[in-house]
Amino acid sequence: MGRKKIDLKTIECPKERSSKYSKRKKGLLKKAEEMAVLCDSDIILLVFSPTSKPNLFYPHYRPLSRILEKLSNMSEYEREERRAYTKKTLVKLLKNKNVEIPNENHNHSSGRDEVQLQEDDKVIELGEARELLDDNTSILRNWQDPHRVDDLAKLTIMEDHLVSILSLIKKAQIEQG
Amino acid sequence: MGRKKIDLKTIECPKERSSKYSKRKKGLLKKAEEMAVLCDSDIILLVFSPTSKPNLFYPHYRPLSRILEKLSNMSEYEREERRAYTKKTLVKLLKNKNVEIPNENHNHSSGRDEVQLQEDDKVIELGEARELLDDNTSILRNWQDPHRVDDLAKLTIMEDHLVSILSLIKKAQIEQG
DNA sequence: ACAACTATGTATAAGAC
DNA sequence: TGTCTTATACATAGTTG
């Protein structure tokens, strides 16, 4: 696509190379966005050039959290484990201090989610924290919309989540070589 | 690019949509590979349609493991240290005080953040902690505006997050075949 | 580096198999 | 879905500012 056909090999001249990089990066992103719209598909595009900083692209109207949700939904076992972990974390948090967990913008009709969680002497109402702690889905949402994070409890759990994922990665990397 | 110009909106007919999806997926991958070669850049491309399995693409001669390696090797030590410090700070904050952390809106007004936390022989200033929290919550923003990244700590956390995302992707790929 | 321009190579829409 | 064809829309190489 241009005045001339070019060979498919690395452009030697660094100046020219990074110029082409910008142009093509832009083009690639456009294509990706077109495809996301036309075909109703999720796309994550990560690009690094040797000279410029990394860029992660994804369509705005398709939050990264939603894409990750899909990915993390794949293993039922993982989800169960995750849920157990977040509940445990919640219990710990509330035991140590009177941390308030606001229920965000969501209407909680008090008939629903009356489930209670008992551990030691503390009773925790799950309904309160459900939106926040139910599974990693909501945690990922918080990463995506950081402005919604308005207290320490959330941040702590997010951090824990990050840490726990990292340990999984290390394991996976060892297994995979 | 075709007989007709088409509107940039989701194709209604599911059959046609998935047909276009295949075509464009192929085209997008080709572009990505071209760019990887021409511009000597690393690219990771994750695509899924609602109907088909997720596909993770990356050039063969640039193995994902190498890209991950690049990311993890770059600042392994700083990442570990950073993570430990952040977590420790958060935990201490929760344990010792029931303090509200002002979030997002940085009002550096009066004698800001007089609260201090004692741990071992170290004094942790709340202001410092808040910076950490802000760092955490701006991860995704930073990926979109890499020029904003002005210190190693931020980059470190960004990397953690990226690596965790990639891990999920990798895992999904394996599970789905 | 980014924007604009033009000529030309490419991707792809529509259609048939 | 995959592949082929053809006509057309689009992306981009080369270049200048």
From TrEMBL, chains A, B:
One Pfam family linked to the record: SRF-TF
Biological process per Gene Ontology, one example term: positive regulation of transcription by RNA polymerase II
Compartments, record wording: Nucleus
SMART domains associated with the record: MADS
Keyword DNA-binding: yes
Signal peptide, first to last residue: none
Domain MADS-box as annotated: residue spans: 1-53
One GO cellular component, as annotated: nucleus
Keyword Translocase: no
GO molecular function, one term: protein dimerization activity
InterPro entries linked: MADS-box/MEF2_TF, SRF-like_MADS-box, TF_MADSbox, TF_MADSbox_sf
Protein keywords: DNA-binding, Nucleus, Transcription, Transcription regulation
Taxonomy, superkingdom: Eukaryota
The protein, known as: MADS-box domain-containing protein
Species this chain originates from: Brassica oleracea var. oleracea
